[in-house]
């Protein structure tokens, strides 16, 4: 469900704005001055919507439209082709997304929901409140670049731009350009198509540019940050399994999980996934170090059928199982409650006793922590500190810390700078790509409506000579596209908020 506190804050802010606007408009003293002030600044207010428009950027748009006409012609023709392909592709993608949503509604398999390319984003529900700034800035940037494409393409086709503006609807920011409709109706359908496709084309280019920057970030940051030497801890969740005096701290560099090397965040995630789905590893311990007093604990079965032998809930001891050195032929396992840090510090991992014989001249035995089925014992290597010892469900360890691939070369560098750039680029890729897809859909009130109308006028004139019939064909196509988009949004919103 949507957090009540967030909903209350948004509603209270809009109620305050709307109340102030109503009082000023109804005041005989301040009404004229207030409306003049709004008009002079290009502001318009309505319930849950504030809009600002200006002509101050028109010269900039005109300058961009005059740069290398030949290159711009090729540029916007490429956008025309992309827009037509994107219009068809967006319909296919929405149909596939709708099928996945319906399949997820009838199953409890979480993997189906994770495979969806498009998802409805609700702040505070599936968008962390700590990342709202990334979301809104990236959304605004994507909207501005989108409208910049429309403005430059329009001026290049001799269509006047009345102004550029920004708006906020509820909590979502956006941008728009106001084109002179008379000029727009006078140009050919192909010219209109270049103008209407320019927005989604620029969103696609921005998405590719952000993706390239994200890919090249290690190279660009190389003089200041190194990569490949481990995963740097930038945050530890307070009270989590990684918190504490012998846990992880901000600035630690994790280089391994058991025998799985960690060179970056991707390795950290893959190692935890691997350890979650493989049997618990053992540790080579010299037979001489197995004190007789440890083996006298009485083993008992847990509810899941696994064995335990430490009944005192000790924080320093753990139940280990091994094959008794004198009885290896019988393959009977012994259980002993042992001091865990002493047993595993500096020891090799193993699967069988034969693994220990290969690497050690002294007689050694492979001892394995006896844990519940889904629980794992994991040694986290973060030199020069001693190992952090973790006992629990591996995904809990993943959620307990935030890591980055970038390790600062100098002490004055901030740990979060690469993380900020990475996160922001990911949001730009996601949101700019989503705007390109959604605006390509042949749907009422979106770019896809005008793209479809211009496309039909450019291609069906010789086939369907009656203009009203062409408009009727366009109407039914737009109706189908609108229904498809509305179904995706409605079911997606229900999946996010109701489940």
> Roughly how much helix do the residues carry, as a percent range?
40-55%
How is the quaternary structure best described?
Answer: single chain
Residue runs with pLDDT of under 50 for 5 or more positions: none
Give the total of beta strands. Answer: 20
Principal-axis shape: elongated
Q: Strand pairing plus helix content: what structural class?
A: alpha+beta
Q: Largest sheet, described in full?
A: 5 strands, antiparallel
Number of helices: 15
Integer average pLDDT: 89
In whole angstroms, the N-to-C terminal distance is 8 Å
Strand order, main sheet: write it out.
14-13-16-10-15
Strand content: 15-25%
Query: What value does the Rg take, in angstroms?
Result: 31 Å
Please tell me about this protein's structure:
With 499 residues, this protein is an alpha+beta fold. The chain is 49% helix and 18% strand. Strand 1 (43-46) and strand 2 form a beta hairpin. The protein is elongated and about 95 Å long.
Give the SSE layout:
Blueprint: H1 4-26, H2 31-40, E1 43-46, E2 49-54, H3 58-65, H4 69-105, H5 110-114, H6 132-156, E3 161-169, E4 172-179, H7 181-186, H8 189-220, E5 225-226, E6 231-236, E7 253-254, E8 256-257, E9 260-261, H9 265-276, E10 282-286, E11 300-301, E12 307-308, E13 317-323, E14 333-339, H10 340-344, E15 349-350, H11 353-359, E16 364-369, E17 376-381, E18 388-392, H12 394-400, E19 401-404, E20 407-408, H13 417-440, H14 447-459, H15 467-498
Antiparallel strand pairs: 1-2, 2-3, 3-4, 5-20, 6-7, 6-19, 8-9, 8-17, 10-15, 10-16, 11-12, 13-14, 13-16, 17-18
Helix pairs in contact: 3-6, 4-8, 4-13, 4-15, 6-8, 6-13, 8-13, 8-14, 9-12, 14-15
């Amino acid at each position: 469900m949507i957090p009540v506190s967030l909903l209350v804050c948004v509603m209270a802010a809009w109620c305050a704005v709307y109340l102030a606007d109503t009082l000023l408009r109804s005041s005989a003293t301040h009404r004229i001055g207030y409306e003049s002030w709004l008009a002079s600044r290009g502001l318009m207010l309505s319930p849950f919507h504030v809009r600002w428009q200006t002509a101050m950027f028109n010269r900039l748009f005109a300058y961009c439209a005059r740069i290398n006409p030949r290159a711009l012609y090729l540029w916007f023709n490429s956008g025309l082709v992309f827009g037509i392909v994107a219009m068809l592709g967006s319909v296919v993608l929405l149909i596939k997304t709708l099928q996945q949503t319906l399949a997820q509604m009838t199953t409890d398999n979480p993997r189906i929901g994770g495979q969806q390319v498009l998802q409805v984003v609700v702040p505070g529900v599936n968008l962390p409140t700590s990342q709202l700034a990334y979301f809104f800035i990236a959304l605004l940037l994507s909207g501005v670049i989108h409208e910049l494409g429309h403005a430059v393409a329009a001026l290049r086709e001799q269509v006047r731009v009345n102004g550029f503006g920004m708006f906020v609807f509820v909590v979502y920011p956006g941008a728009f350009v106001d084109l002179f409709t008379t000029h727009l109706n006078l140009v050919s359908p192909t010219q209109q198509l270049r103008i209407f496709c320019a927005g989604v084309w620029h969103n696609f280019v921005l998405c590719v540019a952000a993706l390239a920057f994200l890919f090249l970030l290690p190279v660009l940051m190389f003089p200041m940050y190194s990569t490949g030497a481990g995963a740097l801890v930038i945050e530890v969740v307070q009270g989590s399994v990684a918190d504490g005096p012998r846990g992880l701290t901000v600035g630690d560099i994790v280089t391994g999980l058991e025998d799985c090397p960690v060179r970056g965040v991707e390795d950290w995630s893959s190692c935890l996934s691997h350890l979650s789905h493989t049997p618990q590893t053992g540790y080579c311990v010299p037979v001489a170090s197995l004190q007789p007093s440890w083996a006298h604990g009485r083993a008992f079965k847990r509810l899941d059928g696994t064995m335990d032998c430490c009944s005192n809930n000790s924080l320093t001891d753990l139940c280990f199982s091994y094959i008794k050195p004198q009885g290896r032929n019988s393959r009977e396992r012994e259980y002993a409650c042992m001091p865990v840090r002493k047993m595993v510090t500096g020891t090799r991992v193993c699967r069988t006793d034969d693994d220990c014989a290969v690497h050690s001249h002294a007689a050694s035995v492979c001892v394995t922590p006896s844990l519940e089925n889904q629980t794992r014992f994991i040694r986290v290597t973060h030199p020069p500190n001693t190992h952090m010892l973790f006992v629990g469900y591996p995904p809990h360890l993943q959620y307990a810390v935030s890591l980055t691939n970038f390790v600062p070369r100098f002490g004055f560098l901030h740990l979060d700078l690469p993380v900020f750039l990475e996160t922001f680029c990911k949001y730009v890729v996601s949101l700019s790509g989503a705007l390109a897809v959604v605006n390509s859909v042949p749907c009422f009130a979106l770019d896809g409506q005008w793209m479809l109308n211009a496309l039909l006028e450019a291609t069906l004139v010789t086939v369907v000579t009656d203009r009203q019939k062409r408009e009727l064909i366009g109407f039914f196509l737009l109706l189908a596209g609108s229904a498809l988009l509305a179904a995706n949004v409605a079911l997606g919103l229900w999946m996010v908020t109701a489940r």
